[in-house]
Every structure is written in C-alpha cells, then in structure tokens.
C-alpha cells in the first residue's frame, strides 16, 4: 500500500473511533398512557401487535432501540429517522389530537399502508417481522377505517 493510502486509512479510523464519544439523543422509552392510540381505541390484541411491530418503533414514545443504535453514525441516523417519524405521527400522543386531526391521520395511515409505503423498506430490511402480509395489511386498514 502506498503511504498516502495508509495515512487516509489511519485518519478514517481515528474519526470513526472519535465519533463514538459523541452521544446520541435517544428518546426515553415511556410506557403507554391514556392518550396512546391502542389504549384510547381499545384496539384488538392482533391489531395492536401489528402496530407495535410495524409502526411503534418510529411513531411512538415506546421505542426499542436496536444494538446498532449505540454506534455512530448509525445512532444519529436512527435518531433523526425517529424524530421525523414522530413529528408526522406519534401514537403515544394520539389522544391529544383534535377530532379533525385524528381523522386526517387515520386517512393518511390507511393510504400509506394500502400503498405499501409503510413500514418503510429501510426499516423492514433489518426488521423482517415488521413486513405486513397482504392479509395483515387488509385487516389493519379495515380496522382503521372503522375508526374513521
């Protein structure tokens, strides 16, 4: 190897090790409260399981961070992704929304699930259990339509 390549490799290793000391801003895992979507709607167990598996890690305050979230830059990207997901829809705070906003969020959820836009491919790539089958997608959207 050329000397310049070794220097660049050494610098890269130093940077990768150094960024491990910069903390992430993990959200605390907060237990479900009365405003949580599942509790608020007395959601059936099977539907709740689908939502928890496919949606809650990015769209609630009940986050189960994977092991790789402790390593940078993966942790930063994951935190950014979760912040964006919760800004769009936070199941933990669903009860705080106005009636009109709840209706809009439900319509959006139905559309996203029917068009297979959610859960997103970058999530299901690692979380294979979050992939919804056609029958699960149908069952979930049918339930959401009853709330709308």
From TrEMBL:
Residues 28-148 form the Cytochrome c domain. SUPFAM superfamilies: Cytochrome c. Transmembrane segments: none annotated. Pfam families: Haem_bd (PF14376). Keywords: Heme, Iron, Metal-binding. It comes from Algoriphagus iocasae. One of its GO terms (molecular function) is metal ion binding. This is Cytochrome c domain-containing protein. InterPro entries: Cyt_c-like_dom, Cyt_c-like_dom_sf, Haem-bd. It comes from the Bacteria.
């Amino acid at each position: 190897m050329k000397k310049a390549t070794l220097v660049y490799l050494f610098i890269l290793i130093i940077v990768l090790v150094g960024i491990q000391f910069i903390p992430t801003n993990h959200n605390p895992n907060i237990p479900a409260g009365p405003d949580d979507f599942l509790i608020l709607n007395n959601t059936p167990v099977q539907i709740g399981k689908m939502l928890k598996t496919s949606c809650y890690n990015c769209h609630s305050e009940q986050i189960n961070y994977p092991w790789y979230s402790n390593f940078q830059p993966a942790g930063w990207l994951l935190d950014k992704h979760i912040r964006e997901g919760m800004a769009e829809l936070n199941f933990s705070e669903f009860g705080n929304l106005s009636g009109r906003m709840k209706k809009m969020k439900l319509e959006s959820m139905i559309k996203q699930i029917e068009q297979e836009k959610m859960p997103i491919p970058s999530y299901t790539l690692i979380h294979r259990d979050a992939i919804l089958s056609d029958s699960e997608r149908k069952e979930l959207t049918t339930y959401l339509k009853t709330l709308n």
